[in-house]
Each structure stands twice: as structure tokens, then as C-alpha cells.
Protein 1
Amino acid sequence: MSTPEERLAELGLAVPDVAKPVAVYVPAVRSGNHVFTSGQLPLRSGELMLTGKVGDSVTAEEAYECAQQCALNALAAVKSVVGDLSTVKQVVKVVVFVASAPDFTGQPGVANGASELLGSVFGDAGVHARSAVGVAALPLDAPVEVELVVEVQV
């Protein structure tokens, strides 16, 4: 059976370096057998992929890709705490915040960028509860932010 990182490689993806926090917090915290990530922005090599509101200057398709990158960054945060993504037993909860134009209602489709990636990487263990929330603005004018709760082996 392949590892989560091998499955990412099959998708042409890799776990990035942990994104540096933009304020006073840590990327992830372990409590018992759960890891809670801070909200992760769509940063690649320290730069936001895009800025702006979804449904205005950012398309739903671009936001989907941003959600996928946020999920990758969240996996990096999890890995920084547990050392090996193979210890993830279950992705429990995903919360996706979408900076939305006033009339944009496609937040669930944007959130699928994160959800589908997690399903591809973890299979049945990637099936999770989720919230997709439209918000007026996100840090640094990011279009998407994602946070995860995962259960890991003790």
C-alpha cells in the first residue's frame, strides 16, 4: 500500500514546507490523538497564489486550486507535528473560508478543492465533515483559507 506522500506524488503534488504564520500562532497543535491546524492560506513558496474575492477578481476554478493548495499547506502543518502523514487515521473536519463577492454562492464547489485532494490522499480515511463558509475578507486578501482536524495514531 502506498503512503500519503506517494499518492500525492502520483497526483504531481508534494507536501510543501510549513507556511510561516502571519501573526502570533503556530501552524498546528496536537491534543491527544487529534491535530488541529491553524487556518492555512494558499501560499506557494511564501507567496499568495492569488488575492481578491471569489466571484469578482478570482474565479471559482482558481479558488478551487487555492483550496487545494491550502489543504497541502495544512498537511504540511500536520506533518510538522506528527512527523509522518502515514499516522493519520482519519480526516475528521475541514473548514473552508471563501472570501466571496456579495452574490457568490459557490462556496461548496470551492471547498471541493480541499476535500477531493484529501480523499485522493487518504482514501476512506479522507472522508470528513465539512463547513464551507463565505466571508467578507481573509488575511492578506487571500481568496481561501482552510483548517483541518485530523485523528492520528497514538
Protein 2
Amino acid sequence: MGSVASPLDLGVTLVSGSAEHKHEDALSALVALVEADLEACNRVIVARMDSPVSLIPQLAAHIVAAGGKRLRPLLTLAAARLCGYPDRDGAARHVDLAACVEFIHTATLLHDDVVDESQLRRGLASANAVFGNKASVLVGDFLFARAFQLMVDDGSLKVLAILSQAAATIAEGEVLQLVTQNDLSTSEARYLEVIQGKTAALFAAACQIGAVVANRPECEEEALSAYGMKLGIAFQLVDDALDYVADQATLGKTIGDDFREGKITLPVLVAFLAGDDAEKAFWRRTVESLDQTHSDLDHAMRLIAGHGAIGVTLERAQRFVQEAKAALTIFADSPFRRALADVADYTVQRLR
């Protein structure tokens, strides 16, 4: 068998020494509430990454062990406990499905980094930079297959329907982003459609299946799905803003990647629409034609700052956060509900 990282290596890694450090209490509180579940989830991840083809666990471990906040599987675990999923009879459906969610997410990261030609992931060399594009794509396929094995093992057609639909929606979102890339005529509504697909759909599914495994009524499923969808949109809005304001160590990827690739994000759309003729010409040259010079990123960041585009993006994200928190009000007050609400606030606080 191939050598994989130990469960301890796969634990949640919170960013420290950065501007977001003071806001991490919300995420730490959520981790503390589901700590035993998360440790069990990490063990499932390690076991299911193994393969007699040694390159598979080596490459999979490279990206999974790189850390990250494990936010999506955390949402599955917390949603299940919020809905009263029991601690008895060795029940662990939520644990296996949280691992499934992480595999779907990790597979998309492997594929995205190849498409985007990214060199960094969470501050470390991306898997495609270390192992090459072909291996990254194929191991991403392996992780998708592992995710579907976990769904089949769970035995619920409803869970299978939710997660398979999410996987299809993620792919659609990524293709839609490819279609809108370099197109400054993209509307804000179209941009939101992209991020709902590529990011928020998995947040929504991760939360909804927590209610499914706990056999809760459909209204609670819908509430958790809505919470996850709004949270995921806010999360991506903030990520898109951070590409123009964060330092590289905080962001965990090369600053300005979105700009260099000509991705249409809300900060760019706001600055473009507010700009004069000369500014619009700059954006068309750099984003639509990808005719960029060494100083263009700095100029783009100045234009975005000058037109308050980061503030506009943050305001939009804050609106979605409030909608996410409102969706939780169907549930009785509990430590899990409060932690999930606080995590929604944490999402936008990363920009403050």
C-alpha cells in the first residue's frame, strides 16, 4: 500500500499570525463541538485515500494534509448534531458523509488548479506543480470515485441524489466561469450564478445531508440547504475580494491570480462599471485581452480601492451572511446553532 499521512497530519489547520487570527474563535468553537466526529472523519479520509498505486495516496495526501479549515465537512458534522443525530449504536453516517464531502471538494481543487495553472494551494506548492497536471487530474478522478463509493455505502438514495447533484452543479459552475472569463459584459447576476455553482452548491449539500441522516422534516433540510447556499456565496465573495487586498501568506495562493487569468469577479465588475473611459480601456486590455504588464496588477488594485469595490463586495457578502443566519432560526437555540451563526459572521470578518 502507499504511504499516507497520519490522522494527526490531517487535522484542522487554523491560520495564525494573520489579520484573521482574532476572528478564529468562531471556527475553533465549531471544531471543539464536533472534535470527536472530526477525528473520526479524518480517519475515514486516511483509510479511503489508500491505494496500491502509490502515487495516488502520495498526491492525495499532499493536498489533504496541506491543511485548510475543513469547513465543508465541519458543516456536515455540525448540521447533523444540530438536528439531533444520535451518539449510539456506532452511528457514523454523518462522519462518512463528511469525508465524502471533503473528497468532492479536494477533487475539485485538484482539477481547478490544473485549469487555472495555479502554483500555490494554501501557501504550499500545488499538487500539479509538484506532481504534474496529468497525475493531478487522474487523482482528482480517483477522489470523486471514492466519494461516490461512500455515498453508495451510505445506502440512502436521497443522500446520493443531493451529493451527485451538487457534484454536477460544481462542474457546471466551473464551466460557466470559463465561459464568462475575460468577458466584462458579465452581469452581477451571472457572476452570482457562477459562484453559486462552483462554491455554494457544495456548502448547501454538506449542510442538507446533516438533516437527512438525522431523519428531520423537509423544512429543516431546506433551512440548512439555504444556510449553506448563502454561506457559500458569502465565502466566495470574500475570497474574490481577498485576491486584491490580502497578502500572499494570508491568502495561501499567489496574489492577483484572478486578475492574471482574467476572471470576472465582483470587485472587477464594480470598478469597471464605475470607471471612466480610460479606466474601462485599462480593464478591457488587461482582463479581456490579457495584455498585461508588470505594473498592471498594482494599478488594478488602486482602481478597485479607489471605487470602493472591496466595500461593495463586503456589503454583498454581509447581506448573504444575514440571510444564512436567518435560515437557522427554524432551529431551537443551541451551541450548534450559535456556532453555525458565528461561522457565518467569521466568513466576512476575514476581510476586516
Protein 3
Amino acid sequence: MTWEERWHPLREEWIIIAAHRQNRPWIGEMLENTEDKIPEYIEDCYLCPRNTRVSGKTNPDYEQIFVFDNDHPNASFDAPKAETPKAEIYRSKPAYGISRVVCYSPRHNLTLTELKVEEIVNLLKTWGEQYKDLGSLDEIKHVLIFENKGEAVGVSNPHPHCQIYANNFVFKTIENEARSSQEHFESTGKILFQEIIEAEIEDGKRILAENENAIAFLPYFARYAYEVYVAPKKTHQSIADLDESELLGFAKVLKTVLIKYDNLWQMAFPYVMVLHQAPTDDGDYSAFHFHIEFHPPLRKPNLLKYLAGPEIGGGNFLSDTSPEEKAKELQRLSEIHYKQTV
């Protein structure tokens, strides 16, 4: 049984690990797995090829990756001028930025997990191109790339896709991570994330996949039951900085993690996936280490990790599971997708 507090060095906060609570009596809401056979094409899906979106624009008959400006952006250079608040302690500014959608495949019934390694490499390259393209704009201070997968996280369309938010501010988690990484480097001369990788390799208990160029692990300070980090072994500020061999190694490790996720409960595993990349505001981010974080909402096949008093009210996570036990579960799973073994 693990019952302790663990320090999260990237977020600079304590995580309460209370694994003995995982099997406490539960009579609250339970989720049902309503996964049905999904067709390859759906006529009214606004992300499928040849279909008309709500903006009136028609998707091309694309065969691989398709990128377009979001029809419902969170920010735009056409955003109206913000009203000046009456109170001096309040501030506002126009929501300037660009929102984009990246469709992974024309097939509606695929997921990132089911893409071939070479298709994942192409996606990684697309993410890098988008980061560089959007980040080069003077008004853009940060490029956030993320995927919400599954009904459990409220995804609006199951067609395989992710979103890009390029905004005129730096998202708080990245801002904090960049600051803590830089401060650690200035005080120790070491890259914080490199020390995390070294600690995970030395411990070895939570590593899920590894090759010459990349590594995936369930971190010592995990907040969610099946939280996983995927990172290149060399320090890079963004996905755009990885060379061909690093991209291939990264894609292989990423696919292994995704397969293990699906194999866990033989279902399309829901998650929030976020690319942690350095801000693009011309600051010094030499100590920032690009990586991808997965935050799965389920702690059991039909039970969500609800954010409640400690998380929403207190601001610190309480984990009902032990990172070591969850890592063991994932480590035992096959690297061949369950659908291929049927």
C-alpha cells in the first residue's frame, strides 16, 4: 500500500498518493462502454472528406493528414476589441490567435493508436511544421497542441483529430514548467527533465517503452492513475527540433504506449494528450525539454477520476492509485493491439 506525498518538480506542487482508497465502496455514477462498430465514412461528420462543415466550406477529398482553421476558434485576429474593466485590478485584451484542427486520417473509424508508425511520423512532422509556422508570428506567444479522445473527456467528434491553440499568451502549465526548468538549470547546471529521465531509468519500475531515442514512463509523481510521459532522450524545445531518427524512435514508443492503453480494457482508451513545447515569445528556453503527457480520466474501466475538493478547491491532486502498481498493469500488456489478435 502506498500512502504518502510526492513532489512534482515540473509543476512544483505536492501530489497525495492514497492508493488504499482505490477500492473504497462506490455507489456513485458509473460509465458504460458503448463502443460500437464505427463506419469508415459518415455523411454528416464535419471532419470526413468531401463533407461540408458548419462554416459552409467543403473538405477536400484528402487521403492523409488534413489541417484547417477551426470553424469555432477560441481566438482569432478578427476578435473584437476588449472592453476596459471599471475595476483597476481587472484586465482584459482581445482574444488574438489562431485555432486549427488536424485530422489524422480520412477514415472516421481509426484512432491515433491504429495509425502505422510511418503515419505517426508524418503526423509528428505536421505538428512540428504547425509549431514553427504559428510560432513565427509576432502575436503568437505559445502553440498548444492537444487531443481530447473519448466521450469520457467530452470529445465533440470521434473522427481522429487534434486541435491547435496558438494564442497571445502562454498557457499556465507550460509557463510554470518553463520557469521551474530554467530555475533548476540556473541553480544546478542540470536539465530538470533529464534528471527525471535518469531517475526513472535508474528506478526502472515505471518504464513502459524505451529505445535509443525515446522513452515512455508513468512518472513517480503521477496525478492520474494511468498518466504517461513520452519524451525524446535528448533535450529539445519542441517536436520540430527532432531529427529523422529521433522522430522514428519517438513514434515507435508513442505507438507502444497507445496500444497498451487500448489493451488494458480492450477498448478505445480515452485520454487528454498534450504536447509540452517551449513558448514562442523569444524567451530563453534552453532548459525546456519537449515531451507529451497523457492524462487518462479513468481509474477503472467504468469509473472516472473525478476532480473534486482537493483538486478544484485545494489546487493539489489526490491520486487513489499507486504509480508503481499502475505501471505494472501496463507493463504486462502486449505490444500487439487486441483487435489484431481477434
Protein 4
Amino acid sequence: MILHIDMDAFYCSVEERDRPELVGKPVIVGGTPEGRGVVAAANYEVRKYGVHSAMPAATARRLCPHAVVLPARHSYYAKISHQIREVFHRYTPLVEPLSLDEAFLDVKASEALFGSSAQIGREIKIEIAETLNLVASVGVAPNKFLAKIASDLDKPDGFLVVDPDHVQDFLDPLPVSRLWGIGKVSQKTLHKRGVHTIGALRQLSQAELQKLFGKVGAHLWRLAHGIDDRAVIPDSEAKSISHETTFDVDITDTETLRSWLLELTEQVSRRLRRHQLYGRTVQIKIRFADFRTITRAHTLSEPTHITQEIWCVAAALLEQNLSAKYRGVRLLGIGVSGFADESGQVSLFEQSEREKQGQIDTITDSIKDRFGQTALRRATDLKR
């Protein structure tokens, strides 16, 4: 069985934990009290007013003028994320992080030691609450797709187990929007045919879905039948390390996208350095407002884990693939692959510059680990 563990309103929950006077108040992390920038996270209290992540801070301010607005402390959240993963690793080595606040765990081989998958999920949830004073929602299911849906359905403070013998009973009543790959346009196409639930979609043949959606049709058919064969792959065994974020609203401002991509690049670079990995290929993923998804990659002459080198490639790929007519971006991601044991001596930069950039990364990591993300920031990131 697979667990999907997702921390509830993670950034905001950390701030509320550290400042108990915030509990029960609407809290926004990111942006500024004056309404500049973008919301990085919103707690459940402020979501009642329609505020959500990736929303312009000025809009959030109008919706909830009395919200408490706090600066994001990403490296501090990263330290706590590391503590959470230490809990995971006490139960299984098969942990695949998706971001700072969520991960997949494969616990099949751990059941002989710790009990059923459901028991393990309960124990992890309790341990996180007792040792870190944070709340996690847990989904337990036969595969990744089902586990992720399960953890989301019962939020906040959720715990949901999908019985392997009753997968269709679980899936069929859910709206088709729960399927990965179904956007607003796809929903309209299905609704016109009277298909509103996964159960109704399951009545369509694979050929019918492929006629409607092309190659994606086969993917939707498999998910509607609860089929997902992807394995849980930990960082130490991964062929790539990546981060992506899905925006609650489509982002139309290019500078905002660049700023988000820089943050994702820094997260990926730090993970590479933490595992002493050097990657040769940089890839970005863009999902547009119409749900069209593209991936674009560039392979370097020598592998690297230097933030600036990876960022130069990622920023260029983003610029090359945002047409003047794009109507917004729904998802943005970056990954690095093509690992080697160590970096070569030649790169995009002269060796002296590369050494300087490596020193900057080392110092930056150290300062952020100690004082938090906002203690030291790249100028590009200030635009967000």
C-alpha cells in the first residue's frame, strides 16, 4: 500500500505553531501588508474569504483586509520539512518527496514490523502531531493516484483508507475533475456528453476517450479504472530531482512566473547539493490555462548543482516557450536529470566564476538554514 501525506496549510500552520496568538485568525504567508507580491500560502480561516495561494497579494488584501500577512521563511520551512521526513524514514526508506509539504511513502515491506498500512499512517500522523505540533492529512491506497485523492478528500486533519477491493466504489461518485489531466476545457467536453462523474466516464471505452482527447484518453481511462503503476522512488534512487507547483489561479505575468521558477530552481539545487548529485539535463514543465502541457529540456556539456547555472538554463527555456499570446500558466515545474558522481571542470561559466558561484551557494545555504529564507534573497526573487 502507498501513503500520501500532505501537511495542512503547511507554511501558515508553522507560523501559527510558532505564534499561538495567530490561531483562529486569517493568515497569509507571502506578499506584503501593503498588497504587493503574490500569496504563497493561505490558512483555512482566510480561505473562507476566497483567498488562495498564487493570488496577487493586493486582491487578497481586498478580500480580507484584516488578514495577518507574514513574509515567507522558505528555508525555515525546509528545515521543518526535513524533520517531517525523518519521521517518514523511521517507518520506510521508500519516501518520494513531492514538495516541502507532501510525499509518497511505500510501506508494503514495513507492515511486518509496524502493522498494517493504515496503522503506519496513523502512527506517522500522531508522531508528527506530538513531536512537531503540526497536522498532516493522510491517504492510504493501493497506488499513488488513489492515495493522493484520499489525502485531499478528508482535509483538514484527514485520514482516509481506500480498500483495494472497493476502488470503484471510492472513485465512481467523484467528479471527473479529480482525474489528473482533466481541466476546464476537458470538463466542458465531457459535460456536453452528460459525463460528470468518474463512474460515468468509466462507461466510455478507451477508444472513445482517445477519440475525444487523443493520447491523454488512454491515461484517463486507466485512472478512471484506478490503475496507476508508478513506483515510489526516493531521491537516492531517482533518475531526476524536480519540483513543480500548481497555481490556484492562472498566472499571466511573466515576471511572476520567472520568480516562481527561481524559487523552484533553488529548491531543486539544494536537494542536489544535499545528496551530492550533479545533473546534466535541465527540464522545465509548463501547463497552460487551456491545460496544454509542454516539457522542454537543455543538456549541459558538464553536470552541475550550482543554482545560477541551472537558473540560466531554466529562465532561457521559460522565455523561449512563452508566446506573446499565452493566456496564463496553470502549473510550472523544473527538474534536473542525467546525474554524475561529480562535476566536470568546464561549464557555462569560466572555472573561476564557477568556483565563486559554488561558494555563493554554500554561504547562501548556510545563512538560510540558520536565519530563514528572507535573510538573503536573490534580486530576481524580490519581484515576487
